[in-house]
Write a structure and sequence with these properties.
Layout: E1 3-6, H1 8-15, E2 26-31, E3 63-64, E4 69-73, E5 78-82, E6 86-102, E7 110-129, E8 140-143
Antiparallel strand pairs: 1-7, 2-3, 2-6, 4-5, 5-8, 6-7
Amino acid sequence: MATGKWFGPAIGKVLGKQLDLVNDSIKVALVAGSYTPNQDTHDEWADVSANETSGTGYTAGGKVLASKTMTYDSTNNWWTFDAADLTWSTVSVSFRYAVIYDDTASGKPLLGYIDFGSTQTATAQDLVIKWETTGDTGILRASV
């Protein structure tokens, strides 16, 4: 099961209006298992980019998220960041993480990542990341 986590510095940048999750160009890049996420100190794409995967059908820098929304659930007191599902068509690639970052803001700030738990391999097939917003395990959810 995949686990989504925020990079700590991202929360301050969102609250400080240094980046806009809905209106900025938010990208998702696939990253190899050689990367070790540090939620406390990793804050820019440069902290991750050397570990970005490569392969047939995969473009460096990742894909742009479409249909982004931020919604507040007053019953459960949490915010959820959602987007349209991502598809890489007929891709051959291995990765462990999907790293989310702001491609618009200076320094390309990291937002969060999805840890798939182990290296995943796609061979000449469609690779889909589904953004889940139901239940209490949304991909990028912040409780208040």
